[in-house]
Amino acid sequence: GYLAWQLSKLRLSSLVCSDLLRSTELQDKDSNLPAHSPSHRTNDVMQQITIPDSMRGATRYFKRAKVPPTATRFSSSSAPVPPPPEGKSSKFMIVVNNEDFRVETAVLNKLTDNTPPGSLRMMTVVGAGDTTLTSLMHPAVGHVTGLDMSPAQLHLVQLKLATAVSDLTTGQAMGFLTRGDNGRNILRNHLAQHMPEETAEFFLSDELDQDIYHGVLRKHNDNPFNLSIRKYFEETHSLFLSQFATMTMAERQQLFQVMEDPQSVVDLAAIMEPAFKNAPWFQALPVEMQEYLVPSGSDGVSIVEIAIKASLNGACNALRDVDRGLLPADELYTDVFLTGTLKTLPPWLTPAGRDILRNKAGLFDTICGKMEDVEFNIEAPFDLLTLSNSYDFVTAEVATESVKGLAGKCLAPNGQIIIRRACGQAQEILTAAGGVCAPGDDLHLLDVCPLFYRNKNTVACASFS
Predict the structure, then answer these.
(1) Between helices 303-323 and 332-339, what is the axis angle to 10°?
(2) 53 DSSP β-pair partners
(3) pLDDT at residue 46 in the model
(4) The predicted structure's pLDDT at residue 350
(5) What is the predicted pLDDT for the residue at 376?
(6) Which residue of 246, 276, 418, 459 is surrounded by the most CB atoms within 10 Å?
(7) Are 40 and 182 contacting, i.e. CB atoms less than 8 angstroms apart?
(8) Residue 299, pLDDT score
(9) What are the φ and ψ backbone dihedral angles of 453, each rounded to 5 degrees?
């Protein structure tokens, strides 16, 4: 009745009313939310109506929506505004971490032997936030600080945390994140209340329409290595990685042979290096870092090419283990590599994980900046730092000095540092910085991410006295 009254006041024709309601029904087709809840139906339809100047007073009835005026999906003539394109977002470098949270969990499990629950303080380089949130779930962890140079990546981890602690069902949460189901409605009415104000404003802005409409974890937002590798295998070898589960033995053997062929690395480097140079996130890096990753001269060694080789090798190792039954057919990082999106739930989105995070969300904070430039509270040092693969972007010498500095200014006595480096030398860097690596600590065997799985000396942990 409320909706009909508003429509009649606006004197829309029955055709316009029908179009609006029918469009809303199409928008709701994958939703599990109550079909007639005011927050789900009435507000969404009212946002799509252009209000005449003579009736501006009526906005008080649906002010709660707080949608920017330009974010309407329909004009006054009811003609639908085309949805934003489904391509890759320009805002996020990655949306699923390039490292496997099982490494951090294994290190935390060892530390737990001598520490009471909730006593450890931890700092992570956020990236896409999966390792950060999974680490926060660990019973030994009492506080996590997430650090990243990119404000967008910090907003992303806050979106994931808000989704985890919200009242959405698991199906609704996955639909929102991977397909954008009821994107704006869920963001406004279920997630914004759990976010810092600046994060809510970030995702409610028109610039994020693409990610909210199609889902921030959609396959188009997968990392550049996975996107390029899938496209290369499809267009060059007619091998569709998303169909790995139904491939014949002969097709799988052909896939493994191509992955192990050095020419595949050369071909992919020729595709990816120009793409890297043109990417907004790459162009925002310091010039010396850009030159290190993709040298302008022909004599330099491209770190991108080294990472491509590592990624192909790790993916081949993982898929061979799936083929032999040594890894499950559905595994998070293998799924993302093959299809570009989630099929299995990350720990922070499982029912148990969400329940833990609802009780620990207040034990998480973020810092935006470079690790070396941040001033830390020396009275509250960290027991564990996990620095992602940040040191893939710099030389081993620079990485060593960075680790030394961090250990000296923010690490507790006998604290530990985890680093990943797809181009190798992870243990050498930690040792040169004064750390002690545990013998036989083969963490690369636990990291099923293609960049690191069974690639020696790419993942390491050391303690610092």
Answers:
(1) 110
(2) none
(3) 31
(4) 97
(5) 77
(6) 459
(7) yes
(8) 64
(9) -60, 115
At residue 443, what is the residue type? L
In Å, what is the CA distance from 162 to each residue of 121, 188, 197, 283? Answer: 22, 12, 12, 30
Q: What are phi and psi of 146, to 5 degrees?
A: -100, 125
CA distance 95 to 219: 10
Given a contact cutoff of 8 angstroms between Cβ atoms, the answer to whether 112 and 91 are in contact is no
Could you tell me the two tokens for 14? Answer: 């029955």
Residue by residue, DSSP assigns 95-151 as: SS-SS-HHHHHHHHHHHHTTS-TT-EEEEEE-TTSHHHHHHHHSTTEEEEEEEES-H
Q: Which residues of 20-34 are buried (b: 16+ CB within 10 A; e: fewer)?
A: beebbeebbeebebe
User: Which residues lie closer than 8 Å to 213 by C-beta, 6 or more apart?
Assistant: 83, 84, 180, 183
Tokens of 300: 């330099």
| Distance in angstroms (rounded) separating the CA atoms of residues 399 and 393 | 9
SS3 85: coil
Burial of 343 (0-12, 13-18, 19+ CB in 10 A): middle
Rounded-to-integer distance, Cα 327 and Cα 239, Å: 21
Q: Which residues of the chain have pLDDT under 70?
A: 1-82, 297-300, 378
Q: What pLDDT is recorded for position 348? A: 98
Structure tokens of 37? 């809840």
Cβ distance 220 to 340 under 8 Å?
yes
Q: How far apart are CA 134 and CA 358, in angstroms?
A: 13
- For the four alpha carbons of 408, 414, 420 and 424, in that order, the dihedral sign comes to positive
Residue 276's identity, in one-letter code, is F
Tell me, what's the pLDDT at 300?
66
Q: Three-class SS of residue 383?
A: strand
List the alpha helices (DSSP H) in 205-286.
Answer: 209-214, 224-237, 249-260, 262-278, 280-283
357 Cβ contact list (under 8 Å, min separation 6) = 133, 136, 137, 161, 164, 165, 348
CA distance 379 to 314: 40
Determine the Cα–Cα distance for residues 454 and 318; give it in Å rounded to an integer: 8
Model pLDDT for residues 311-320, shown as the tens digit of each residue: 999 999 999 9
pLDDT, residue 240, reads 97
For 157, residues 6+ apart whose C-beta sits below 8 A from its C-beta are 126, 128, 129, 132, 133, 146, 366
pLDDT of the residue at 287? 86
pLDDT at site 81:
60
Q: What are phi and psi of 386, to 5 degrees?
A: -125, 120
